[in-house]
Amino acid sequence: MESDCGRAIQTLKDRGIRHDVSLVQHIWDLMNIQWEVSLRVINRESNKVADALANLAWKLSSGFHDFVDPPSCVSSLVMADLPD
């Protein structure tokens, strides 16, 4: 898992500390499944598409949203990530 939020990654790594936040507990439950999980902090520039999608999520109604094509807010970012 990659995040540009060092505090979030540290929270997930500190399993000995009890958290009342259900999202943290849910992520810990997923991390306990038999698969390899690594947590690392990345710089914000490496996370532009995820950041744009997170900002878009605040503007959408709750529920599942399926995109056939990338939303317009990330199209140029996705194109910039494609190899030449």
UniProtKB/TrEMBL annotation:
It comes from the Eukaryota. Coiled coil: none annotated. It holds the Pfam family RVT_3. Residues 1-57 form the RNase H type-1 domain. InterPro entries: RNase_H-like, RNaseH_domain. This is RNase H type-1 domain-containing protein.
